[in-house]
Amino acid sequence: MRKPIFDLTDKVAIVTGGSRGIGKAIANEFCNSGATVVIASRKQDGLDKAAEEINTESGKVVPIAAHTGDRDAVENLIQKTLDSCGGIDIVVNNAATNPQFGPILQSEESQWDKVWEVNVKGYFRLAKASFSHMKKRGGGKIINVSSIAAKLPLIG
């Protein structure tokens, strides 16, 4: 095992979009640093597979299915995290969606609604729902991951 970048012993982190990509890499690093990490994503089977692959020699991983675009699912994620881990210290808002990649004239309003629910309101909901629990533990960190797409204009 390589030396961790920082010490997260006794810290609890929630990482959305944690079943693959950047979210899974963040969860792996947090576990390597001693944290208990809740990985959240829509599909339990993908989470279970990711949980098997994440290095838990120093930390622990807890897979919880949750759609961050759904208010009730976010509240359920918080409650399950509290029940299984005892608190929240770190939230990494990483889950995102982009159902239409291309010219705006080829997109539907419902696609934009989905982007707004997950990529904007989902981040807001999880941050707001976790804040009071972080405060009880003396503070915490909320990390919002975004893409470079705003800096790369598309034709159309």
UniProtKB/TrEMBL annotation:
PANTHER family on file: DEHYDROGENASE/REDUCTASE (SDR FAMILY) MEMBER 4, DEHYDROGENASE_REDUCTASE 4
Species the sequence originates in: marine metagenome
Name of the protein in its database record: Short-chain dehydrogenase
Transmembrane segments: none
Family: Belongs to the short-chain dehydrogenases/reductases (SDR) family.
CDD domains: SDR_c
